[in-house]
């Protein structure tokens, strides 16, 4: 018996839930072919537009995020098309897997795990190896905690009328400033179990006018993830197939909460938590894995020399019920990942760092207890002061 | 103001929810890459096997039922393959739409809406127009309330080693006796918002050894609905992509309830409700749409001569909060459909028939109030007596 130990998720999805929205979702039988539900769908799509920061259409599907990623491939491309994939981690590789599944030739621009994509290299590839029907990247690579410069990439793709830009922002949305319309992010992909504070089971895709033109020409087979069919039905507040009704109600609730909180505050919150986590890691003598361009969504931290990251995770889990993610694939055992997606606050940060300090101590590392927490507290105060000054200046 | 009016679903999906299982699903944050969740997944797959009445693998996906239907097409077929589709309603036509989306030639054996598929005709087609890679049908056609004889069809397909049988049992499961292993139903498709008493968002597919051999050879593109990948991961209690965690917890709860209740009792309950609904309709001078081979899942009733079925539905909805489904497509306005999927009991039946009698009266039809209810009560008593005698004989 460990006495009272609460389970806490610090994983990059699923993430902590906004309980009040989830409870609302569970409290009634619900039929989707009713005016009530159509109204809910229309409002939810509007809320999604706000959350995506776009005027483009936003589609929603009953699936995990990978489903909408597959839809971006099957709705934009035809046999014989060539695409450029920018990859620097496990989720970049998912684009390659999808291209392979559909027999699409993908030219790869790769950065090592932990580094951001090199936009000069992508520009060269676009110039020399194109034309490409589409470019596929991540906004933030969840497996390494790196943020890619999709703004610069958008400018590169915008000037190529034959090419659309697809951005997996599954962990980027709600953690990272994204301006799809201004920057030319033609298709942006999201999922429900991330900064949206709700369980998995819904995926989203925003689609620009440029992308809709590509959809019209695209010949790859699709049925369940048919973008054009979904757009047509959503305009009536309907979905092509039975929607995941309870999750849609939940989504409406969390997006209302996010709108009331303010999207920019949600993003600033993630930025503060990520900064605080990095400062705390450094104070404890550990290196953030992403030395440049770290993501706000999730922070990957290198385990101290000679220590398996899995041991740290296990210690935190078994003693304190908090779940932190291991590295994936070749990074397993080398890094651990702490999420800042959505419903986390400064108190969560301080608590986790305190727990981390104890775990390191138990694993035999000499730790000045409280030193990591202090770094996190100082970061919190710095961000608060800056926000206050910005508020006064405005 | 209407005073107290409770919302009640009598629609063939979504259906009334088993509230205790749903509440359990909502009460905690949950991560899927944990031993706890792996155990839950493994148990859920075992419970699904019981629910499907099969020893075959059962896969589960975060999607509505159509997603698993698409998976059956993309995982079993290759470009150039020919298939036979038996269709007698809107869901049969979905198989045709899927074949078309993937460029697969589908030979159609059709029955008029309201009639079951003619197995002699299917046999002729198999003999004369084959070979086919697969045959696609429904166990019960939800749009018309008709049950197809998949047992006879299974015997026809079983003797053809090159052909697999795919049965959409989305509303058949839990309402209809199905013996996939004995009858040779190679792939059986299910969805969560039906007799499983929970919200939409999960789909299921059972896959026989014969079907797995077809999967190995199949070349159509698939990624999110990749059967072989899902089988491999489920063996470890994992899913290929983030599972809809809250819905999986819910599913575990409802399948446990169904196991405790007894699958055969769940099916007998639907049979009793369907029979009672038909008898009541006849007592009120209306015809069940399916004159032969009516389904237990849903009963379609023809509106009285000169009366729009939509008017009946509207009356029931606005006065009593009960939602009954209209006909789909060309059947709209002609029939209304009452579901018996899952969490309905005899009390629900008596209440709905009473409400229907009042609606008909308000719409100007002369009704002997209580006469429909009496027919339903007599049917209930008859089924109870038979069940008791069967119990004593056993």
Architecture overview:
Two copies of one chain form a homodimer. Chain A contains 14 helices and 14 strands. Chain A is α/β, with parallel strands linked by helices. Chain A has a seven-stranded mixed β-sheet with strand order 2-10-9-8-5-3-4, with helices on both faces. Chain A has a three-stranded antiparallel β-sheet with strand order 11-14-13. A two-stranded parallel sheet of chain A has the order 1-12. In chain A, strand 13 (325-326) and strand 14 (335-339) form a beta hairpin. Chain A is globular. At the A-B interface, strand 1, helix 1, helix 3, helix 4 and helix 10 of A face strand 1, helix 1, helix 3, helix 4 and helix 10 of B.
Features:
homodimer; 394 residues; alpha/beta; Aspartate Aminotransferase, domain 1; Aspartate Aminotransferase, domain 2; 2 domains; 7-stranded mixed β-sheet; 3-stranded antiparallel β-sheet; 14 helices; 14 strands; 15% strand
């Amino acid at each position: 018996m460990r006495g009272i130990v609460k389970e806490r998720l610090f994983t990059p999805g699923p993430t902590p839930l906004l309980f009040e929205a989830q409870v609302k979702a569970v409290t009634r039988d619900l039929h989707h072919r009713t005016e009530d539900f159509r109204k809910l769908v229309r409002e939810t799509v509007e809320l999604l537009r706000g959350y995506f920061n776009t005027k483009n259409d936003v589609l929603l599907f009953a699936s995990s995020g990978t489903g909408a990623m597959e839809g971006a491939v099957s709705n934009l491309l035809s046999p014989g098309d060539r695409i450029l994939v920018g990859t620097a981690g496990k989720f970049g590789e998912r684009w390659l897997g999808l291209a392979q599944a559909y027999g699409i030739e993908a030219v790869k621009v790769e950065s090592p795990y932990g580094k951001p994509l090199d936009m000069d290299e992508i520009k060269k590839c676009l110039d020399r190896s194109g034309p490409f029907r589409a470019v596929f990247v991540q906004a933030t690579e969840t497996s390494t905690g790196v943020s890619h410069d999709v703004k610069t990439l958008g400018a590169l793709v915008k000037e190529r009328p034959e090419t659309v830009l697809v951005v997996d922002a599954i962990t980027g949305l709600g953690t990272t400033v994204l301006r799809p319309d201004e920057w030319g992010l033609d298709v942006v992909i999201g999922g429900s179990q991330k900064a949206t504070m709700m369980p998995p089971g819904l995926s989203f895709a925003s689609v620009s006018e440029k992308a809709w033109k590509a959809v019209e020409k695209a010949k790859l087979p699709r049925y369940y993830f048919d973008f054009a069919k979904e757009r047509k039905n959503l305009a009536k507040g309907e979905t092509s197939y039975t929607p995941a009704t309870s999750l849609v109600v939940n989504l409406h609730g969390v997006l209302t909460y996010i709108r009331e909180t303010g999207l920019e505050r949600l993003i600033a919150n993630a930025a503060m938590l990520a900064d605080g986590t990095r400062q705390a890691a450094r104070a404890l003598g550990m290196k953030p894995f992403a030395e440049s361009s770290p993501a706000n969504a999730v922070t990957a931290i290198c385990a101290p020399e000679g220590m398996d990251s899995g041991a740290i995770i296990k210690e935190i889990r078994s003693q304190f019920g908090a779940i932190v993610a291991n590295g994936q694939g070749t990074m397993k055992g080398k890094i651990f990942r702490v999420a800042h997606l959505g419903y986390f606050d400064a108190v969560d940060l301080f608590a986790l760092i305190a727990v981390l300090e104890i775990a390191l101590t138990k694993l035999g590392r000499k730790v000045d207890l409280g030193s990591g927490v202090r770094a996190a507290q100082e970061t919190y105060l710095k961000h608060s002061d800056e926000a206050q000054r910005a508020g006064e200046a405005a």
